[in-house]
Amino acid sequence: MDHTESRDGTAGTDDPMDETRATPDPTPEPGSVPEPAPEPGRKRRRPWVRRVRRTALVLALLLIVPLVAVETALRVNYMGDPADGTYTRGRDAMWLGHAWVDGRKKDADVTALAGRLKDTGVRDLYVHTGPLEHDGTLPKSVYPRARWFIDAVHRELPGVRVQAFLGDVLANGGPEGLELGDAATRAEVVRSAGQVLDTGYEGVHLDLEPLHSGDEHYLDLLDDLRELTWERDAQLSVAAHQIDPLPHLHSVAGFVADHPKWWSQEFFGQVARRVDQIAVMSYDTARLFESTYGGYVAQQTSLALEVTPPTTHLLMGLPFYYESNPSHWGHAETVAAAVRGARLGLSRTDPDRELFGLAPYIDFAATETNWKEFEEGWARRP
Hints:
The chain is an alpha/beta fold. The chain has helices spanning 47-77, 107-117, 146-156, 183-199, 216-232, 249-256, 265-272, 290-307, 335-349, 368-379; strands at residues 92-96, 122-128, 161-169, 203-209, 235-240, 242-243, 262-263, 277-280, 313-319, 324-325, 328-329, 356-361. The strands form three sheets. An eight-stranded parallel sheet has the order 1-2-3-4-5-8-9-12. It has a two-stranded parallel ribbon with strand order 6-7. Strand 2 (122-128), helix 3 and strand 3 form a beta-alpha-beta unit. The longest helix is centred in the N-terminal third of the chain and has 31 residues, at 47-77. The two termini are 55 Å apart.
């Protein structure tokens, strides 16, 4: 808070017997008007203070009015009822932590997981198998129990696919990271993908962040990976950034932050056309209320459906974790709101779409409330 020093406005002693005081000329000179003396104890407001206050008010209005408008629009977007039949198509997915492939999990854990997932519609498991090294390589030592887990899932959950969840921090988000612009690095990522497919995984799930909208090197990498997965009859899936809720918002975000939150809708479509599955990370939205978060997910679902070809499987992420911070308010980002928002977006845009599902993130942070809201709101499991 700025503090302004006060000035001494106390008038001097006015002694009528003081002979040293000059007697004022009762007749002022022509054209001269004496300025009134400042009132005792009052401060004259400086012009720059008024300008600063006016500027601050204008800036506040420029920020607050659009924010209120956006929040109101999202709240309205959450109104109404989802269409009948907008429930699981049996094509849902789930992100799993690294403990499933590094030796910490046992047979009993897989049995418990199978009991939890049975009859929920989850068909794909993205199990964390990386991270990749910054040069694109993947040490086999980081997933020593992958083959065991894949076999256990096939035994306990027939028909469920296990995909290797590979990710890394990109160099455009800081001083270190994976450099997509380097052709040799991209080649190593493709080689690492072939390496996990040789282990027995049925697909590769890629999550590289922060990924700027329009990154041509990323599209080149997806083209190379798609050629590999086609040859192996495997799935290629990606975790995707959210889509601009307002036109060109990704450009503004990229200008003020190194971690762009949004992709353009056009770029999202370019990515979606190159993969078998695209899963939107529709959480960490900074929404303050459950209704506005649900409205945001409804909007994201519609935007994604508009540019995802019917041959690509679209999934909307669910927040299976609780945090409270400026980017993720736990009281607002609930599974119930996300499920209802996704159903609303599906209802309004493409209610009969078959290649659509939801994807909880992530197993080790999930609460019983998360599971209940997913099962009752989407999987229709009593």
